[in-house]
């Protein structure tokens, strides 16, 4: 499960890290220390060439978190599809088409998970948030899928409101310190796998699944942080302050 994460890097930095060729400044997102489902998030994806002989275009896009399948009758279903399990993502009806054709990377500084802790003074159980992040401070490239949904209430395909583009995060069994907090975690790819994962012409399910291996031990740190992150309306760097 990944239900909240941080994304504070500037788009100019992300375009360099992921070798993006196309980015629209109109889609600039504010830094967020409390990204929540249905928020717009940055996604890196490769789009097929328009003409023969052209290379794929690598784009940095702002997508809504929570995948809405093309066949969905109501986009509200996306709020329940923020994660896709790596064990079944290639075969589930909601994800299998996107897994074959529309894969992306979702940049993050780190993510949050919650650990139930009993308060000895009151006897009540509270959920203590932990910030889990790469030990070396590098960006996490979370494996994701994206999908297009056509709004049937809008007649013109040229109307930008006719199309909704959404995404989901692929999760795996937790390793490193993350496993002490929660059994699941986002699946992050290493740079040597970016090109293959993003290639829209690569449809071999077995090859793609081979990229989605559990990350090596020792790459993640986890630390308890402010309870303020529990409220999705709270945002700012103070959310990463040490728990008191």
From TrEMBL:
It comes from the Bacteria. SUPFAM superfamilies: BB1717-like. It is an enzyme of class 3 (hydrolase). The keyword GTP-binding does not apply. The keyword ATP-binding does not apply. Belongs to the SOS response-associated peptidase family. This is Abasic site processing protein. It comes from Streptomyces flavochromogenes. Keywords: Covalent protein-DNA linkage, DNA damage, DNA-binding, Hydrolase, Lyase, Protease. Its EC number is 3.4.-.-. InterPro entries: SRAP, SRAP-like. Signal peptide: none annotated.
């Amino acid at each position: 499960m990944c239900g909240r994460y941080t994304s504070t890097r500037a788009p100019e930095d992300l375009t360099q890290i992921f070798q993006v060729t196309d980015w629209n400044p109109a889609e600039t997102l504010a830094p967020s220390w409390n990204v929540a489902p249905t928020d717009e998030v940055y996604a890196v994806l490769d789009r097929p060439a328009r003409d023969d002989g052209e290379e794929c275009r690598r784009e940095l896009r702002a997508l809504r978190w929570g995948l809405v399948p093309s066949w969905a009758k109501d986009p509200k279903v996306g709020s329940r599809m923020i994660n896709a399990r790596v064990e079944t993502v290639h075969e589930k009806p909601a994800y299998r088409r996107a897994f074959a054709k529309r894969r992306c990377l979702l940049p993050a500084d780190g993510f949050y998970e919650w650990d139930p802790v009993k308060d000895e003074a009151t006897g009540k159980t509270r959920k203590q948030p932990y910030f889990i992040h790469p030990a070396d401070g590098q960006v996490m490239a979370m494996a994701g899928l994206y999908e297009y949904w056509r709004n049937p209430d809008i007649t013109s395909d040229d109307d930008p409101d006719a199309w909704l583009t959404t995404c989901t995060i692929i999760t795996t069994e937790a390793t490193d310190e993350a496993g002490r907090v929660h059994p699941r975690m986002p699946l992050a790819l290493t740079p040597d796998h970016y090109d293959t994962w993003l290639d829209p012409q690569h449809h071999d399910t077995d090859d793609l699944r081979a990229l989605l291996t559990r990350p090596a031990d020792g790459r993640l740190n986890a630390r308890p942080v402010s309870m303020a992150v529990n409220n999705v309306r709270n945002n700012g760097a103070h959310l990463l302050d040490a728990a008191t």
